[in-house]
Specification:
Helices cover 73% and strands 0% of the residues. The longest helix has 27 residues.
Length: 97
Amino acid sequence: IAVAVVPNPVFSVCCIFLMALGCSLMWPALWPLAMADLGKFTKAGSSLLTMAIAGGAVMPWLQGLVQDAFSYQTSYWVSVPCFLFILYYGLAGYKVR
C-alpha cells in the first residue's frame, strides 16, 4: 500500500491490482490457520471470522470518506492498519502447535 501512493498513477494502479491479487491468495490460507484446534469454540471462531468479512464493507466506506476529504492517494493509508494486523498474525499471532 505504501508503494501505491506514489505520484505515478499507472504504477499505483498496478500496485493496487497486485495487492488485491495477494489478498485473494491469502484468505484461503488464513481461514484454516484461524480454525485449527479451536475445539468446542470452532463455531464461535468461524462466526467471528465470517463477521470480520464485514470489514470489507466498512473499510471502503471509511476510505471513501478520507478520499473525499483529502485525496485518492491519501485514502489508501486507511488500509495500512488492517494489513499490519494480518502481517502480525502471520508472523507472530499464530503459533504452530
